[in-house]
Amino acid sequence: MTQLTEDIQAFDNKLIKLDTAIKKIINHLKCKKKHELINTKIALNRTLADKIISSINVPAYSNSAVDGYAINYKEYSNGNRKFIIIGKSSAGHPFNKKIKKLGSIRVLTGAMIPSKLDTVIMEEDCNLSKGILILPNGIKKGINYRYLGEDIKKNTTIFKKGHKIRAQDLGALSSLGITKIKAYKKLKVAIFSSGDELTNIHKPLKKGHIYDSNREMIKAFLLKLGYIVTDLGILRDKKHIIIKKLNEASNKSDLIITSGGMSLGDEDHIKTIIEEKGNIHAWRLAIKPGRPVGFGTYNNCPIIGLPGNPAAAFITFLMIATPILKQMSGQLLKKYNVIPIASNFHYSKKRGRKEFIRVKLINKKGKLTIEKFPKSGAGILTSATWSTGIGILDENIEKIKPYDKINYLSYNEIID
User: Fold this and answer.
1) What's the burial of 412, exposed, middle or buried (CB within 10 Å: 0-12/13-18/19+)?
2) How confident is the model over 332-359, as pLDDT tens digits?
3) Separation between Cα atoms, residue 319 and residue 341, nearest integer Å
């Protein structure tokens, strides 16, 4: 499905800058995306394979925004303050008779307004006397009047190709009467964790073992993003086992995501296997946490190797895997809404390395600040459950002190 046209290896103990790695990976991903026609009712989280153009106006007719009385403003502007009530229009039941001079009709919210009338006065501002509508001075033309096509005009582009359908978008599609859309087929993503120390959560822990938290987290993210997930479980630190599973996954999947085995330890086989049987295109990034994250191909199938440490896996999935996934699925890549907000802590870091610290927004007396999680280790997953987003510290930053502005990125901005 995807091929890379150029390696961006930067080994020999050199670290690749994150922005450089992501940009080159994205630019050299050639995706042959398949599409299908699907029912709008099941389109949530699907990506459009074609733009959506409105075939009708919304609303389809001019209507009232309030309960009140509709008049011809020109007659009012000529000095008339009394109008004859000649009928009523309610939602689904329009007034179809001829509008006489100085005629007014009672209209309810959403009711169609006859073409000769162009202004609606709320009933609270009207006086009635024996079928006569008596109006005050100071009424403005067009008040409480919803124009035909005011929301969506016929033949306009509503959504571009690559737009991911959200709940509110389903409402807009429904307002246009659209029952089917052309969408890219869901990505098929295979995942597994690697490590002899890992245990599935339904089994008792042995001495020296830990539960596998990364796989469930990554699977949940992928499902939330709308992909089809094949869970290959926990693979032991045996090269032949890993190779067998990679062979199976690469033939059936659009992308493989692994957790663990990407560092330089004796039992870290993933990176070595990809080098021997495929290609490593990016590895060892100048970031914290998550330096050993890697990207490559195995049997022409893209593969992302995430770190084994849970907090590092969390950060690298969000900041590296997510844009790759969106690109492969045909989704338009948008710039994240990063907001500079004052810190309330001291912190030091190395120059030349981009860091992602887990932070929480604090609103105190109407002033927003960023609070850092007290622990910063790559294995502290509670930093992810406590925080609301990421504080991004660029390569040139060495020290942070209270009231310094930090770029804040909400988790909700990424997983969209």
Assistant:
1) exposed
2) 988 999 999 999 999 999 999 999 999 9
3) 20
